Amino acid sequence: MLNLTIHIVRVLSIDFYGWDCDFLSMAKVQTPQMLTANRLVTGEVVYWARGIWIGSLTAAEVFADGRQAEAALDQAKLSVADRTVVNPYLFPVRAEDGHIRPLEEREIIRAAGPTVRSDLGRPTAHV
Amino acid sequence: MYRYDEFDAAFVRERVEQFRYQVARRLSGELTEDEFKPLRLMNGLYLQLHAYMLRIAVPYGTLSPRQLRMLATIARKYDKGYGHFTTRQNIQFNWIKLGDVPDVLADLATVEMHALQTSGNCIRNVTADHFAGAAADEIEDPRILAEIIRQWSTLHPEFSYLPRKFKIAVSGSAQDRAAIRFHDMAVEIVKNEAGEIGCRVFVGGGMGRTPYVGQVIGEFVPREDILAFLEAVMRVYNEEGRRDNIYKARIKILVNAVGIEEMRARVMREFAEIKAGGTLQLPADEVARIAAYFAPPQFGTLPDASSKFEAARHADPDFDLWATRNLSRHRTPGYAIATISLKPIGGIPGDATAEQMEALANLVDDFDLAEIRVSHEQNLVLPHVKKRDLPAIFARLKSLGLCTPNAGLVTDIIACPGLDYCDLANARSIPVAQRISERLAPRQEEIGELKIKISGCINACGHHHAGHIGILGVDKKGVEFYQLQLGGSGAEDASIGEILGPAFSIDEITDAVERVVDAYLDTRKDGERFLDTVRRIGLEPFKARAYGETAHAAH
Amino acid sequence: MPLIRNGAFTEDHFVSIADDAPMPLNGTIVSLARFQRDRETLLARNSPLGVRLKSSESPEALGEDVHRLAVIVLEFPIFRDGRPFSRARLLRTRMSYKGEIRAVGHFLYDQLAFAVRTGFDSFEVPEGFTLAQFERALFEMSYVYQPSADGRITIRGLRTEATVFHHHAG
Lengths: 127, 555, 170
Known about the structure:
Number of domains of chain A: 1
Oligomer: heterotrimer
Helix content of chain A: 25-40%
Number of helices of chain C: 6
CATH superfamily of chain C: Aldolase class I
Order of helices and strands of chain C: EEEEHHEEHEHEHH
Helix content of chain C: 25-40%
Largest sheet of chain A: 5 strands, antiparallel
Strand content of chain C: 15-25%
């Protein structure tokens, strides 16, 4: 049976880029966010990656800036209108030891699959 | 069991096409998600955490082998090889694609199944005692009335857009194995002094944010009037139930707001008018026609004791233990009711693989068992088993990993899918069930009957309010915590569990439950179940043990 | 908005009037509040009158006056609000209302069959909605299980007929 922490580490190891460690920026920094939705036809969980929806959270886009995040969410509404996805929304993430990790358990489980079925692994390639 | 005639068959086929058209209109953009959502919900299709979840109706929990085989096929063909049996006797598949659903429904229609009204603000699956037709204490098979109610409530033009969901249950005996007192509306089949069969109608029970035990609104409604009476209740609810707040929209809120006397007055006024109109009268010959479908199989004339059965009990301690725990008394000598536990120690409660489903279908056929049932406690039931066949059946169950001898014991846990699967959940429930099961399995015989029910959120799909020990998962600042309640019961002695104290973390909850169980073992009087001890001594001793320092010393 | 009545597109012979607007000469529809306020004057007029009910308002508030109304408009504030179905049924059965019952507001194609069964006979539909769609909606399901205001024969009724037929034929 899986401990939630082990579950995260197993599936969310990525290299992390783009964090601005300048002191002044740190003072203004907002919680980074990512954008997710479900594909309309298949129901699969997908993440926004620079204009396309992919299955892997680890390869998806992180918005350091709230305005960037909102702009992406706006763009995502086009995907709703063209029936690609339903219910796009932003969720908070944070950097931890060079890994990106959702703040909320719900999003951790959504990314990695049910904690009680490690055999039902999530696809990590593009969908 | 009920068999579709040409009308029922045409109905589900047309319904499939209707849904196919709805999906097409969604995909073309003609319907927005907001408009499509209630339509797909009325066909049992949720969008959950990982994928769409399809909840397939199993009317009053009864399945033929052919139907069970089809469920296995669907698990393989459209899902990930398993299904989950629910607290309303239905089955859920967690990985369905919207694009596949019309085909899934078409496949189901070929075996007289559907997913109609398993969600949405309409009348849901009518549940009934899973021992129907077999229980020794039964007045009448509750599935007869359940089937009649099912038909009357299917695509009801007036009641498909209610303030909220509406759940109906039927019990055929005084002993309540269907938790009827926790339903929006329920019927207990009773006999009056003249020996006539009638309906005691309950209204306003429910779980969720504000649990209530249902109240009697009709002490003896003659059977011919029952549909008119139920329709009267529905109409009052549709017209007067709250629509401003989804947490206050169930009928239980209305009943408690106006009081049962006023509710009865309103219903009786409506009922009188419907009855006068005559269109919903339920004639005796119609009841007899439906009852014929539920006629028990031809039972052999057997002695009550079976030497083969007794010999096997002496020879095989595993079989003996299983027979002690998982068999219930049948009304016919020489027969027994067998509960197949879907709660392997440390396993996921209520899940079954496609292989298990298929093998069980074969078992039902091979032993001429006619049908298999789903219980609201997320187990399966073989209602009519010859005692002499039990050793062989047990051997088959053993080979399938379905021989856990824990029916009604502390490891026979009810758990909703929780945050591992469900979009509404605040916390995971399955891992909690697994940990408790593993921890207490070595002592389950000693502990005796103890019904643990776990819900991952306030919606209470795990029925935690009715658990002897109820556990509610909550989210405290992003961390999973678990609140304990003691003393709930879903039987005819219905009660809502009382909260013990502050919530426990996921790492503490197993210990807390064990300490509560220890407190019971230390204070119980001879033959007392856990529930009895709680009712006798109250919560304080359990509270002290669960939260006290002595707990650590004892370990 | 286009109006389908008794299965065909039809001119709307009524005008809906706000509570404080003057009454025109031809058919008008007023709110329940206005009807209750100006009842005498309204009923004394020679032209057809209709009342529009919100989903929270019951036709019972009109009492016997229903029979003097040419149309009763039942509003769906949102398609999820299923009270209009009960209101229409009440009008047709207990109140024996014979006039036009019109559905307006936000309701779905998928609710049309239910609406017709419960007693609606006219529908304010979106631009571009066709009669073919209307008819399709009504006949998606050939059979119904339960009786409603339309008096349509139920599956149980059909089963009885079939039995009777077989008895006669056999």
